[in-house]
Design brief:
alpha/beta, two-stranded antiparallel sheet, 15% strand
Length: 361
């Protein structure tokens, strides 16, 4: 219990010292330039939000064949590394801390985004729904089941991405193991029907996630690595027959690495029937001995309440940080918040991206 702590209280997160407990959640905004290179507009966007204790970047691709959406950035080319260096320099000069979220979309993709190649996945199971390909919504395709060689190659891509993020000047990395993307697809039995060492038992389904964490921790040191999980998130047609058993096992194993933090999204708790059996998601906290972060439409008052009573150490905000680049300042002054414009969330220019007003302005 920490009755005196609130969002404005500093905290040490692994090896990273934060000035407050406001975290900017990873937010796909689809504004990367040609070659998946960060643009000057992205530099300004992140610089504006450096009052956050910690910024987690939008999910960033470890390889071109992991793409699932248009205009998302990567961290696998020299040009991308140089582009991200401009971002980290700007954030650091403004007094902020920033970690990179690294991902592979797996089956959430389309041949039109992958040079005619099918998306890869643990199993050849077509997800329900549609994906935006840059011009229109298209039905998902049946992905290609990954070979053991594919899996080894993806592990190396995560390792190289971690190395590249270090070269780009980040303060750490977050491994994206959530929201129905590749590592989550391996973990949950609704999307993983393999019968080799990466499928079947919980131990096998969790193997790739744990191996990736092991690889990137060797690059960074575990105390600068976080991981994001979404135990009940139904997004991208995800479900699991026993999510409590699956995620208790995963969290117990992840806890042994001594990571900087665990980032749990609560999405799906409001509509559990779509994701499978429900369980008290925050019972996972008892298995975790490091910093615990949550995310799910928290108001500022509710965030302060759960920090004060010790339920969570950090709260990540999405839409509030989109519309309020100076969110900690606005909270401190009890000022009115800007309203986010959903029409500008994905793609476009500075409108709804870098033109939200600051309080001082």
């Amino acid at each position: 219990m920490n009755q005196t702590a609130d969002l404005l209280t500093p905290i040490k997160v692994g090896a990273i010292s934060l000035k407050n407990r406001f975290v900017m959640a990873p937010l796909t905004r689809s504004r990367a330039g040609e070659g998946m290179v960060p643009t000057d507009l992205m530099v300004e966007y992140y610089r504006q939000r450096a009052s956050a204790g910690l910024i987690i970047t939008e999910a960033t691709l470890v390889s071109a064949d992991g793409a699932g959406y248009p205009a998302i950035p990567g961290i696998f080319s020299d040009a991308q590394v140089e582009g991200w260096k401009k971002v980290t320099d700007a954030v650091h000069q403004a007094g902020g801390k920033i970690v990179m979220q690294i991902w592979h979309c797996g089956r959430v993709g389309h041949t039109s985004l992958l040079n005619g190649e099918l998306p890869m996945a643990p199993s050849a199971i077509k997800p329900a729904g549609e994906v935006f390909t840059g011009t229109a919504m298209q039905p998902y395709e049946t992905p290609r089941e990954m070979s053991l060689h594919d899996i080894a190659r993806v592990k190396e891509q995560f390792r190289q991405a971690a190395h590249n993020a270090l070269s780009a000047g980040f303060d750490g990395i977050e491994v994206h193991g959530a929201n129905g993307y590749l590592l989550d697809q391996f973990l949950r039995d609704g999307s993983n029907h393999r019968n080799d060492i990466y499928g079947g038992s919980i131990e096998n389904r969790a193997r790739l996630l744990l191996e990736v964490i092991d690889e990137v921790s060797k690059i960074w040191g575990a105390d600068r690595v976080g991981v994001r999980l979404s135990p009940l998130q139904p997004f991208n047609d995800m479900h699991d027959s026993n999510p409590e058993q699956t995620f208790r096992y995963a969290v117990e194993k992840l806890d042994k690495f001594g990571l900087a933090y665990l980032h749990i999204t609560e999405m799906g708790t409001e509509s559990p029937e779509t994701a499978g059996p429900v369980f008290p998601i925050h019972s996972l906290r008892e298995l975790w001995h490091s910093i615990y972060m949550t995310n799910f439409d928290y108001s500022l008052d509710r965030a302060n309440e759960v920090i004060a009573n010790g339920e969570f150490d950090l709260i990540s905000f999405g839409k509030l940080f989109i519309a309020n680049p100076d969110l900690p300042v606005r909270f401190d002054k009890k000022a009115t918040l800007n309203e986010p414009d959903p029409d500008t969330f994905y793609g476009g220019d500075e409108r709804g991206y870098t033109d939200y007003p600051f309080l001082e302005a």
